[in-house]
Amino acid sequence: MENIVEMRGVTKRFPGVVANDDISLKIRRGEIFALLGENGAGKSTLMSMLFGLYEPDEGEIFIRGERVRITSPTFAAGLSIGMVHQHFRLVENFTIAENIVLGAEPVRRKLGFLPYVDMRAAGAKIAELSRRYGLEVEPEAVIEDVGISIRQRVEILKMLYREAEILIFDEPTAMLAPQEIEYLLQILKNLRESGKTVILITHKLEEIKKTADRCGILSRGKLVGVYDVAETSTDEMASLMVGRELAGEAAPEEHEFGAEVLRVEKLDVIRDRMKKVDGVSFSVREGEIFAVAGVDGNGQTELTDAIAGLLRSSGGAVTLGGEDLTRADVRERMEKGISYVPEDRHGVGLLLDFTLGDNLTMRRYYEEPFSRRGIRDERAIAEYADRLIERYDIRSGRGYSTVVRSMSGGNQQKAIVAREIELDSRLLIFVQPTRGLDIGATRAIHEHILNQRAAGKAILLVSLELEEILALADTIGVMYGGRMNRVAAARELSIDEVGAYMTGVRQ
Amino acid sequence: MKKRSRVTRLLVRAFGDERRQAFTVPVFAVVMSLAAAAILLLAIGKNPVAAFRALLSGAGFLPKGSYSSGKGIFTDLMTTLSSLTPMIFAALAVTVAFKAGLFNIGVSGQMLFAGFLATVLVGYSALPGYIARPLVILIGIAAGAIAGGVIGLLKYRFNINEVVSSIMINYIFQYVIGFFILTKFVDPVTRHSKAIVKAARLVPSGVQIGRYKTDFPVIVVLAVAASFALKFFLDRTRAGFELRAVGAHPKAAQYAGVKVGRNIVLAMTLSGALAGLAGVAYYLGYYDSITPKALSSVGFDAIAVSLLGNSNPIGGLFASILVTAVDRGSTYMSSAMNVQREISQVITGLILLFSACGAFIRHLVNRAREEDK
User: Fold this and answer.
1) Distance between CA B36 and CA B53 in Å, rounded?
2) Element at B214 (helix H, strand E)
3) Residue A434, SS3 per DSSP
């Protein structure tokens, strides 16, 4: 088979790191080629060079056998290379059709000179593309009114409209629900059937197993190798990716739970005049991991914010160990024993422009030893921070005096988890604790969660990743449209059942 | 790191060190503004070096060619310090609000309110100086704190943007106080408020020191002390930490258990108190009367001064000195060099303009560095 893309000895350096180190790679026409690696392994950098966002420092790129210097995304488009970014680039108040043609408008001239955009011709072409690849969209719908899955289809149609032959997808399933992921994977296969070349950047092994033909694995900027997906097991891929054997995560064993810690009764939360949480009731016991599954935006964040005291509830009650905390403020709830790892790490969980020391003490800064008679004790803060940095392996440039904004996402999250665990609370709430983290950091955080359970803590876990929920949960509650539709022991639920509840197929 | 011009690369090299940025960027802004001023002076055919010397002489930092009797470099310096004091307080007022994420554009109104109350309550009384002066200061603090606190309360309780409310309140103070001055306290000759008694004035005038008869602005010591006190408050105290957290990351501050609303009120109260001090140092110090129906420009210039000082109390102190020196020196420069007084105002304007560019330079440098990552 013909190689449509070839990279020879491509190296890209950024100050302090070699993002891609001497990578040679061949991608064949008409295959789905997966690029696998942990966060920061250099996947996105490598593909950004193919898409013209960066130029390599060393090495050569060949497209269809011809050596090229891809200097800009426009140039890449000229070579029929398209990319769907993780964050979509769409004009919110334009229609789907307008977004698709934007930048490549079919211009015709009325009466021979008046230029206008021939939306009818564009519409016909879009309809034809939708049919051919199974990408259903309403061309007249406005982007701000449609969901993430539809937006992604629009991005794909944008590439197809420009007749791209090489399609790069950067973590396309990160924000999708299970059914939507299935749908997308089917589209990728459709694209392959019609002769397109698909490059899939991901760190989800199941997706690769389901769709890809071959898989290039990157680890710390180096290409470990290119493997035939059919002949490589997911375990092998995982260990190649992290460069070490992974001990399989312990499946949740059956064990007894202790006394009830958190009880939520008929909780309502109204935000932006919308009822985001609607009569939710459940309880979490000592030694239990209660996991809330659901598609993003179904009230999970509002639920945990209300339990932690960041949002006021408009009805119902929250009790902790029998004590009513419905009216308590954030600090009182923290002092009574609620730790909270919030979903929005940057906006809520961290004082981004403050130091690591400030952040590790930000929940207890007001009491001794961190403040004495209103004066902050920098030494006590530094000592405490050093202890946590050591114990939780938080890496940073300048220790406790590092500004948190400059740290990597994984280490920022480790800092939050360290801080909240050290509060030694009866209840720990984790919302999406491993989102965007690589396998190593994810494992470390899962281990902390399991240790806390072993220590008899009650744990409330919210995650969008079903794998995470199935790996950790003792009990699963599924949220859809602000309601908790199903609560059951984890072993009684199959992944398909959870998927059906979280997408509202079953109520 | 695609296309990066040589200019940005140079900028990154010069200002890349984040720790030194607090110092390098403002210095660069000042050098740029002086360079621009020099070009301006050359364009109208004046020697920029001589002009800058005259500027410094006028502010009392360099000796003039000749002095009238009882005057000297010392008296010039004292006058500069006297005019510097309100600027320092006003810049601190802007800084403390800014640290809490608030924009106090009402400093001038708060100054007027505090100055007026102190004038009316103490300025015409027969109290001896050792009671009158502390009383003036206390009234200034209290009146300013109330005027600022109300703005904070409006924001906390009714979510009224502090910029809108303080501009409105500025107008209210300006005209209501103007009405009272013109109907009750006006001096028929000057059309200002009647001059306050000497005992109440924070800058005693005509003090004999050596062979000089001079204004003696002791209150500048208080202003400098306030700068260091505010620096300590923000950096080292628990309340200062809360205030900064609310300003930089309100949601995270709430999560940390900080009472966001209370800190907004606190910051505006503190800001108002400092503005009140600026007010009494201005109306009962540098001047001894109030012009009705007018706001002082100090409260507005202080916004730029605070920015030039990198929103740092000590930086604000130096920025105040710079701007006041230029402002004070300009009169002498225009007469000695025979240039229009407007030119020196243009130079002040240039400094303020480039100080705003400081934030832009920092943004440029930090973005260029982000792209490197």
Assistant:
1) 16
2) strand B212-214
3) coil
Ranges of residues in chain A whose predicted pLDDT is under 70: 1, 15-17, 39-40, 175, 242-254, 503-505, 507
Chain B's closest residue to A52, CA to CA, is: B2
Structure confidence at residue B18 (pLDDT): 64
- Picking from B99, B249, B255 by the largest number of A CB atoms within 10 A of its own CB, the best residue to mutate is B255
Dihedral sign of CA atoms A448, A450, A455, A461 in order: positive
Shortest alpha-carbon distance between residue B249 and chain A (Å): 6
Q: Where are the domains of chain B?
A: 1-46+339-373, 66-338
Residue type for B318, please? Answer: F
Helix (H) or strand (E) holding A456, with range, is: none
According to DSSP H, which parts of chain B are helical?
A: 6-15, 18-43, 48-58, 73-99, 107-118, 129-158, 162-180, 219-236, 238-248, 250-255, 260-281, 298-308, 313-337, 341-372
Rounded (5°) CA angle A339-A343-A345: 90
Region B144-173 average pLDDT = 95
Residue in B closest to A419 by C-alpha: B256
- Distance in angstroms between the alpha carbons of the first and the last residue of chain B: 9
Q: Which of B238, B248, B257 sits opposite A376 (nearest CB)?
A: B238
Closest Cα to residue B261, out of B111, B155, B369? B155
ipTM of predicted complex = 0.84
- Which of helix, strand or coil describes residue B26? helix
Q: Is A100:A59 a contact under the CB 8 Å cutoff?
A: no
Q: Which domains does chain A have, with CATH numbers?
A: 3-242 (3.40.50.300), 247-337+425-507 (3.40.50.300), 353-424 (no CATH)
Residue B108 makes CB contacts below 8 A (sequence gap 6+) with: B170, B295, B296, B297, B298, B299, B300
Digit-coded pLDDT (tens) for A29-46: 999 999 987 766 788 889
Mutate to test the interface with B, among A362, A375, A416 (most CBs of B within 10 A): A362
What does the pLDDT read at residue A248? 44
Strand arrangement of the beta sheet that strand A458-463 belongs to = A338-341, A427-431, A458-463, A289-293, A475-480, A483-489
Alpha carbon distance B308, B326 (integer Å): 14
Say if residues B281 and B115 touch (Cβ distance below 8 Å).
no
Name the CA dihedral angle for A299, A302, A308, A313, rounded to a multiple of 10 degrees. Answer: -110
In whole angstroms, what is the distance from residue A210 CA to residue A189 CA?
Answer: 10
- Pairing state between β A32-36 and A197-202: parallel
- pTM equals 0.74
Phi, psi angles (nearest 5°) of residue A265: -125, 120
Count of CB contacts below 8 A, A vs B?
71
Helices B73-99 and B313-337 cross at an angle (nearest 10°) of 140
Q: What's the half-sphere exposure (Cβ side, CA atoms, 13 Å) at A60?
A: 7
A51 vs A70: CA distance, rounded Å: 7
A431: Cα separation from own chain's centroid:
12
How far is the C-alpha of A448 from the C-alpha of A415, rounded, in Å? Answer: 12
> Which CATH architecture best describes the domain B66-338?
Orthogonal Bundle (1.10)
Chain B residue whose CA is closest to A377: B236
Question: Is-cis flag, bond preceding B26, omega within 30?
Answer: no
Q: How far is B126 from chain A (nearest CA, A)?
A: 41
Residue A53 Cα, gap to closest chain B Cα (Å):
7
Residue A278: partners with Cβ closer than 8 Å, 6 or more residues away: A268, A299, A481, A482, A483
Rounded Cα–Cα distance for residues B212 and B182 (Å):
36
Who contacts A8 (Cβ-Cβ below 8 Å, separation ≥6)? A24, A59, A60, A61, A62
Contact check, Cβ <8 Å, A375/B241: no
